[in-house]
Amino acid sequence: MSISNPEYSQSNILRPIEIKGNNHNKGSLPALTLAAIGVVFGDIGTSPLYALKECFSPEHGIPFSPDAVMGVLSMVFWAFMVVVSLKYVLFVMRANNHGEGGILALMALALRTAPANSKRALTIMMLGVFGACMFYGDAVITPAISVLSAVEGLEIVSPQFTKYVIPITLTILVALFLIQKKGTALVGFLFGPIVVMWFLAIGLIGAYMILDNPSILLATNPMYAINFLLEHSLQAFVVLGAVFLVVTGTEALYADMGHFGIKPIQFAWFFLTMPSLLLNYFGQGALLLANPEAISNPFFLMVPESYTLALVILATMATVIASQAVISGAYSMTSQAILLGFIPRMKILYTSEKEVGQIYMPAINW
């Protein structure tokens, strides 16, 4: 494998990334947790806006039924348990390279077990680069898709707002990238309280709906998911792809680890993010069991019409923040790629005196 960068070598890969991201100030756990909520969990935190609705898209050919609702929710629940909680938060995040996370950090760790210039080493490198490309693709499309999906909620309030959707979206995105140079800490400090409010709101809305139909909680039984997959066979495989929209942004948890450390991310996930998301998804399921027509937009239809505009505004702010997770992750990923010799050097600005992993890269931002 030829690399154009003359600084590349197998030893460069095997050497730990020279960023001591583990040296987080232990006394700053609450502040780091709040900032992590504002930066890391925005992407996965806004998936309730579209994920469940997409699972029952007519294109998938799955007939709507109570059993289908229970089956899909069961898959959602176990996706959170297995993919996010077990795989990433408890297992993969332990595989950090001097505090740095992401697919390239994982690749560097894996290469330490492979002989230099071997086929195994080449395979690991190719998988790492491919994974990084996939993450960059996510970082490119997520800001546009997430912000646009929330601003389109204005159309539910009134069709007259339709012509303003694109201009508002563009204005929000430009402003988001303009403030990146202020640093992850400031962005997280500004966004953290809003995301906390978002999670509390969607959790309470979901809990209220669950109270009307607590039987929806039976979907935690994995047999509902298994029976759904067996019954619908090929179509269920397509739906499973839509189910994984609920874990969109999970890679950002790992990639952004260098900005905040492991403990703040784990604490925020288990005590706020995951409970709120699950309550909301099960609340949407309870609504669908009572009113199947709500599948057109179950998230916004969970609240009375008089509260829809307020929820749209909050959702818009949350989806703006969702973009921050992949933007920060792209900085970390690029920094690691530079240190590993895969891409030329770029300007890296360190935006925090306490957290070495908090960086800003103008070239990537623009």
Description:
This protein is mostly helical and 366 residues long. 65% of the residues lie in helices and 1% in strands. It contains 16 helices and 2 strands. The protein has helices spanning 10-14, 29-39, 42-45, 51-55, 66-91, 103-111, 119-151, 154-157, 165-178, 184-212, 222-243, 250-255, 257-260, 262-290, 308-339, 362-365, and strands at residues 349-350, 359-360. It has a two-stranded antiparallel ribbon. Mean pLDDT is 81; it is low at 1-27.
SS element count, helices: 16
Spatial extent as radius of gyration: 21 Å
> In this structure, how is the largest beta sheet organized?
2 strands, antiparallel
Helix content: 55-70%
Query: What is the string of SSEs from the N terminus onward?
Result: HHHHHHHHHHHHHHHEEH
Which structural class is indicated by helix and strand composition? mainly alpha
Instruction: Name the poorly predicted regions.
Output: 1-27
Indicate the overall shape. Answer: globular
- Extended strand count: 2
> Taking all residues together, what is the mean pLDDT?
81
Strand content bin: under 5%
**How many domains would you count in the coordinates?**
1
Summarize the structure.
The chain is mainly α and 366 residues long.
Topology, element by element:
Blueprint: H1 10-14, H2 29-39, H3 42-45, H4 51-55, H5 66-91, H6 103-111, H7 119-151, H8 154-157, H9 165-178, H10 184-212, H11 222-243, H12 250-255, H13 257-260, H14 262-290, H15 308-339, E1 349-350, E2 359-360, H16 362-365
Antiparallel strand pairs: 1-2
Helix pairs in contact: 2-10, 2-14, 5-11, 5-14, 6-7, 7-9, 7-15, 10-14, 10-15
